[in-house]
Amino acid sequence: xxxxxxxxxxxxxxxxxxxxxxxLGFGHSAGSVACALLSAGGHLYYGVCIDVSSGIGxxxxxxxxxxxxxxxxxxxxxxxxVGEGGRVLPPCGRCREFMAQVDESNLAHTEVIxxxxxxVCLADLLPHPYVGV
Length: 133
Prior knowledge:
Blueprint lengths: L7 H9 L5 E2 L5 E11 L4 E8 L8 H11 L5 E8 L4 E2 L3 H10 L2 H5 L1 E5 L2 E4 H4 L8
Parallel strand pairs: 4-6
Antiparallel strand pairs: 1-2, 2-3, 2-4, 4-5, 6-7
Helix pairs in contact: 2-3
């Protein structure tokens, strides 16, 4: 079932519901950052960061994108990441590039929510993508 178009405030609230640290093994954690992603098909996907050693953890955006791809979609309409305390976080460079490489249309069409009243296109955050090189 498709989700209706959501406002930035609704997307932020959706991510905030999942943003709480969870203990993992060996003193590691997950969930200090959460992501809500609305696909171009109108489905909502979620992810949380996984913070483990040796650089093998990943961002909340990666988790949400993986859930979307697992469900058979690649185009992102809107995405937001939220840290503890409800602070909206911009995607890191790796996440920006990942969004672009998952689907070429994401560069021009993905709305990245940076605040309740601040939304930018992915291309504005990634003006020189590695895609196609």
